[in-house]
C-alpha cells in the first residue's frame, strides 16, 4: 500500500491525507462554516452528514492510492482547518489545478498561501507537472489574492465557467509553468 500523503509546510502547518476517523471533524468544520463556504463552493448543500464526509474521505484515499487526484487536509497547529488538493494529476499534458477552502476564523495567517506554494513546488518537483492552474470566481477577491501573491500569471477570464446556485459565474484563470521565473 502507498504511504499516505503528508507534506510539512512550516513549523505550524502540515498538509496530509485525512483518515476515516476524521469524518466527524470534517463535518463539524463544514457545518460551522456553511454560509461562508456556500458563497463560492457549489457542493456545500450536498454535505449533510458525517457519513457523507466518510464516503468522501474514502474516495480521497482511493484516488491517492490510484495516483490520481489528491484531496488533503490543511492542519494549523495540529487542528484541521481546511482542505486543499490537486486535480488532474494523470493528465498526459502534465497539467493540474489546485483548489482550496479554509475555516473562516483561520483566515488571515497566510495558511492557504503557504500551502499553495508548497503544493505547487511539490507538483513541479515530484509529479513533474508543466503547468499548475488556480481558478477563482472573478469576484472572489480573497481567493484571487492567493495566486497573485505567489507569482502565478493571470491568463484571463473564462466566461460563465462555473454554475453556482442558479447562475453561471465568470472565473479568473491563473497559471504557473515550471519554467516561469
Ligand atoms: C479563499 C480563502 C482560502 C482565502 O483565505 P485567506 O486566509 O485570505 O488566505 P491565506 O490563508 O493565504 O491568508 C492570507 C491573508 O493572511 C495575511 N497573511 C498574514 N501572514 C501571512 C504570510 N506569512 N503569508 C501570506 N499571507 C499572510 C495576508 O495578508 C492575507 O490577509 P488579507 O486578506 O487581509 O490581506 C478563504 O477565504 C476561503 O476558504 N473562502 C471560502 C471558500 C473559497 O472561496 N474557496 C476558494 C474557491 S476558488
Tags for this model:
single chain; binds coenzyme A; 181 residues; 8 strands; alpha+beta; globular; Aminopeptidase; 31% helix
Briefly characterize the structure.
The protein is α+β, with helices and mostly antiparallel strands and about 180 residues long. The chain has helices spanning about 25-30, 35-40, 50-65, 110-125, 140-150, and strands spanning about 5-10, 15, 70-75, 80-85, 95-100, 130-135, 155-165, 165-175. It has one domain (about 5-175): Aminopeptidase (3-Layer(aba) Sandwich).
DSSP helix count? 5
Strand order of the largest sheet: 1-2-3-4-5-6-8-7
Small molecules bound in the structure, each named once: coenzyme A
What name does CATH use for the topology? Aminopeptidase
Distance between the termini: 37 Å
Q: Please provide the count of β strands.
A: 8
- The CATH H-level superfamily is Gcn5-related N-acetyltransferase (GNAT)
In round numbers, the mean pLDDT is 96
**Shape label:** globular
Runs with pLDDT <50, length 5+?
Answer: none
- Give the SSE string: EEHHHEEEHEHEE
CATH top level assignment = Alpha Beta
The biggest sheet amounts to: 8 strands, mixed
Strand content: 25-35%
Q: Can you name the CATH architecture? A: 3-Layer(aba) Sandwich
Overall description:
The protein has 181 residues and is α+β, with helices and mostly antiparallel strands. The protein has a single domain, classed as Gcn5-related N-acetyltransferase (GNAT) (Aminopeptidase, 3-Layer(aba) Sandwich), CATH 3.40.630.30. It is 31% helix and 34% strand. The chain is built from five helices and eight strands. An eight-stranded mixed beta sheet has the order 1-2-3-4-5-6-8-7, with helices on both faces. β3 (70-76) and β4 (79-87) form a beta hairpin. The longest helix is centred in the first third of the chain and has 17 residues, at 50-66. The radius of gyration is 16 Å and the shape is globular. The protein starts with 5 loop residues before the first strand and ends with a strand. The chain binds coenzyme A (COA). Coenzyme A is lined by residues 37, 40-41, 100-102, 107-113, 136, 140, 142-143, 145-146. Coenzyme A binds next to β5, α4 and α5.
Amino acid at each position: 500500500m502507498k504511504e499516505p500523503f503528508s507534506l510539512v509546510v512550516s513549523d505550524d502547518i502540515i498538509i496530509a491525507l485525512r483518515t476515516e476517523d476524521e469524518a466527524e471533524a470534517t463535518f463539524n468544520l463544514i457545518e460551522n462554516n456553511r454560509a461562508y463556504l456556500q458563497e463560492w463552493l457549489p457542493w456545500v448543500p450536498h454535505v449533510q452528514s458525517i457519513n457523507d464526509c466518510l464516503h468522501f474521505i474514502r474516495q480521497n484515499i482511493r484516488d491517492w492510492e490510484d495516483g490520481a487526484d489528491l484531496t488533503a487536509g490543511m492542519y494549523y497547529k495540529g487542528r484541521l482547518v481546511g482542505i486543499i488538493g490537486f486535480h488532474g494529476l494523470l493528465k498526459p499534458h502534465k497539467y493540474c489545478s489546485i483548489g482550496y477552502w479554509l475555516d473562516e476564523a483561520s483566515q488571515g495567517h497566510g495558511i492557504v498561501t503557504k500551502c499553495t506554494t508548497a503544493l505547487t513546488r511539490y507538483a513541479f518537483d515530484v509529479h513533474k507537472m508543466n503547468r499548475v492552474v488556480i481558478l477563482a470566481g472573478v469576484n472572489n477577491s480573497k481567493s484571487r489574492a492567493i495566486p497573485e501573491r505567489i507569482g502565478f500569471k493571470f491568463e484571463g477570464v473564462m466566461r460563465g465557467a462555473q454554475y453556482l446556485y442558479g447562475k453561471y459565474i465568470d472565473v479568473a484563470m491563473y497559471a504557473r509553468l515550471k519554467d516561469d521565473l
